[in-house]
Specification:
alpha/beta; 3-stranded antiparallel sheet; elongated; 156 residues; 4 helices
């Protein structure tokens, strides 16, 4: 993307693969932009479809899983968009702990740690880009838990 912003097309035959649950829009935009600049683009594909990449000094092909079969795609660029991690740094500073799951850091409850409430995509990447109502519900859930933890009345 940085090369494209400077007018440099980094490959003529491109395979794009990544975590489609959290990066679908980014991957599709990149594929469209590369195609507009004249690249032949294959994808975006789910990252778990990539079996292997081959080449010596540069990538020359990528093998993708297609059902039970495997298909080799000639290319000179493989773009990988892995799953992103939630924004966990501030919560860690407050005492929360992280775990690595499926290549991404997630926040976990640590007994005895300072009370922390995590909402939105920092708690659940599935909420990134979710409809506004789901994000508001998640914030309201956290607010009820905070009121209950502080001994407030009316907490549901």
């Amino acid at each position: 993307a940085r090369l494209l912003a400077r007018g440099i097309v980094p490959g003529e035959r491109v395979v794009i693969a990544g975590d489609r649950a959290t990066r679908e829009a980014e991957l599709t935009t990149l594929a469209d932009t590369l195609a507009r600049h004249g690249a032949k683009v294959e994808g975006p594909h789910a990252l778990d479809r990539v079996v292997r990449a081959d080449g010596r000094n540069h990538v020359s092909s990528v093998t993708l899983r297609e059902g039970e079969a495997r298909k080799k795609h000639a290319c000179d660029l493989l773009v990988v968009g892995p799953r992103t991690s939630a924004s966990y740094e501030l919560a860690v500073q407050a005492g929360a702990k992280t775990t690595l799951r499926e290549g991404s850091f997630e926040l976990v409850h640590a007994p005895g740690a300072h009370a922390t409430w995590i909402v939105g995509s920092a708690r659940d990447l599935a909420l990134r880009g979710a409809e506004r109502g789901r994000v508001i519900e998640d914030g309201e859930r956290a607010a009820r838990e905070i009121v209950a933890a502080l001994g407030g009345e009316g907490a549901r």
